[in-house]
Write a structure and sequence with these properties.
- The protein contains three helices and six strands, in the order βααββββαβ.
- The protein is α+β, with helices and mostly antiparallel strands and 115 residues long.
- The radius of gyration is 14 Å and the shape is globular.
Length: 115
């Protein structure tokens, strides 16, 4: 019996502007978490580009685990992790909320049962 489900999603073909919009990305992940009944403990965001290639990292700590996102703006790529514990949570529904809001069309999704 699994203790949780972990989605690992690699997205590509995204606009540079989206990949550096840490505010919009945090709002999108937060909305997806809350809409799907998750309890947010804390959130964090950081925009890169001052001394490194442009992009950002978003992290949402949940009482059921976490949602994270990291972008590579110059390459138009985004990595999303959605890890939740428990049998009643639907990670693919959470990703659909994110995908639809951000207009993600080109992605590879891996689903891993944990423990």
């Amino acid at each position: 019996m699994s203790k949780g489900t972990h989605l690992i999603i690699d997205c590509k073909g995204l606009p540079f502007e989206l990949c550096v919009d840490d505010k919009k990305l945090l709002e999108t992940l937060t909305e997806a978490a809350l809409t799907n009944g998750l309890n947010i403990i804390t959130t964090s965001r950081y925009r890169f580009g001052h001394n490194s290639p442009p992009g950002c990292t978003i992290f949402i700590m949940l009482d059921a685990s976490h949602i994270s996102l990291h972008t590579y703006a110059e390459a138009g790529k985004m990595a999303i992790d959605i890890f939740t514990c428990g049998e009643t949570l639907d990670n693919e529904k959470i990703f659909k909320s994110i995908r639809d809001k951000l207009g993600i069309k080109d992605y590879k999704l891996q689903k891993i049962d944990r423990f």
